[in-house]
Specification:
- The chain has three domains: about 170 residues, no CATH class; about 40 residues, no CATH class; about 110 residues, Glutaredoxin (3-Layer(aba) Sandwich).
- It is about 50% helix and about 15% strand.
- It is α/β, with parallel strands linked by helices.
- The strands form two sheets. A five-stranded mixed beta sheet has the order 6-5-4-7-8, sandwiched between helices.
- Keywords: Membrane, Transmembrane, Transmembrane helix.
- Its main location: membrane.
- InterPro entries: Methylamine_util_MauE.
- This is DoxX family membrane protein.
Length: about 400
């Protein structure tokens, strides 16, 4: 029994630390997932949505800390019972999301590993069993070191988790697992191959015939029902088709879609702000300085936002920005970069660098060929003027 407890202890502790660190690497992304759970479509708890980031940081830090506590044997009773309470909550959440088909991805491992709710529920169920074993064998969980070293390790685990969370919030995730990571080509990420598997769907059509409702199941075609009045239709996905890694990304005006044109640019700087109304003011002051420099060095600079025309105009005026904002989907922009505003540097649609508004000085802006050619033309023009003047003299 003692050996089984030790195995369960290692498995649970390691998994909680791993899962927590993955989410702690991107607490803003996890907060977006919590907002999805809190929405009216899932748990209908919109009162918690404004506090999603704080809750996210608290949950993931607690997840890591409890994993560390379990492995080193710090306060076993508190640790095990806390783990049990947490896994009961997670198990309920994933079951609810899976049974009512409310959430497609549970967010348990962030963008590192996508799991649908039923897979996540199965994982939580296994963890629940392992933790119940730990509850039963609580007396076998002892500190692996003396009292002082164990307390010191517990404190370091707590401080380290808080520091890491603060660091990625003030900068960017240390590890980027998203489709817009450095090295990824945005245009390529939107392509659906010709031989990609197509989705298989089942449509249940409801009609009212002679005062009674009648259901007809098809693969998508609209059924003909003599004397029937259409009531509604329900769609069920039997098998999902190919899902491109990048969706809903665009660069648009009210009249035109300029996505392909801008993604073909040799040197493009995108200032990303999913919401100009909630963007960091000091961040835009930093953006102003670096984008002015980028323009001087021959870069094409644009802004991307989901905000309306009034917000675009006022932001450009307030910060005296020398570039225009274009429209893009809010969810896509939140995925592009975890900073509002943030800067993405591209070359022909390939992401070269991403920086938080706190790190704009780290943006690498060598002079582009366009600016070098312009400089050469200016030098040639000046040389010609000097030569002409000298000749006249």
């Amino acid at each position: 029994m003692k050996d089984i407890i030790h195995i369960c202890r290692i498995l649970v502790g390691a998994l909680f630390i791993f899962s927590g660190l993955i989410k702690l690497n991107d607490p803003i992304g996890f907060s977006y997932k919590l907002q999805e759970y809190f929405s009216a479509d899932v748990l209908n708890l919109p009162v918690f949505e404004p506090y999603a980031l704080g809750i996210a940081v608290f949950v993931v830090v607690l997840e890591v800390v409890l994993g560390v506590f379990l492995l080193i044997g710090y306060k076993p009773k508190f640790t095990v019972w806390s783990l049990l309470a947490m896994i009961v909550f997670f198990t309920f959440l994933t079951f609810y999301a899976a049974y009512f088909e409310k959430v497609k991805d549970c967010g348990c491992f962030g963008d590192f590993l996508k799991m649908d709710p039923w897979e996540s529920f199965s994982k939580d169920l296994i963890l629940l069993i392992l933790i119940l074993v730990l509850v039963y064998g609580l007396k076998y969980i002892k500190p692996i070191f003396g009292k002082f070293p164990t307390t010191l390790l517990a404190l370091l685990g707590f401080i380290g988790s808080l520091w890491f969370g603060y660091h990625v919030l003030m900068h960017l995730p240390t590890w980027d697992f998203r489709a817009y990571k450095v090295g990824a080509n945005i245009a390529d990420g939107m392509i659906v191959p010709e031989d990609a598997p197509k989705p298989i769907q089942e449509f249940t059509w409801t009609f009212k015939v002679n005062g009674e409702e009648k259901e007809i199941v098809t693969d998508g075609s609209y059924p003909t029902v003599a004397g029937g009045a259409y009531v509604g239709v329900e769609t069920k996905v039997i098998r999902a088709g190919y899902d491109p890694p990048i969706k809903d990304f665009s660069i648009e005006t009210e009249d035109d879609n300029l996505t392909d044109a801008f993604l073909a640019e040799d040197h493009l700087i995108m200032v990303v702000s999913y919401s100009l109304e909630t963007a960091n003011a000091e961040g835009f002051n930093n953006v102003k300085d670096i984008t002015d420099l980028a323009i001087k060095r021959g870069y094409t600079v644009i802004g991307l936002t989901a905000s309306g025309a009034d917000a675009k105009a006022s932001t450009k005026q307030i910060y005296d920005l020398n570039f225009d904002f274009y429209l893009c989907d809010e969810k896509a922009l939140k995925t592009v970069i975890r900073s509002n505003p943030g800067i993405v540097k591209l070359e022909k649609g390939t992401v070269i660098q991403k920086v938080h508004f706190n790190d704009v000085d780290d943006l690498d802006l060598p002079k582009s060929r366009a600016s070098e050619n312009l400089l050469l033309k200016r030098k040639d023009s000046i040389s010609l003027m000097v030569f002409s003047t000298t000749k006249r003299i």
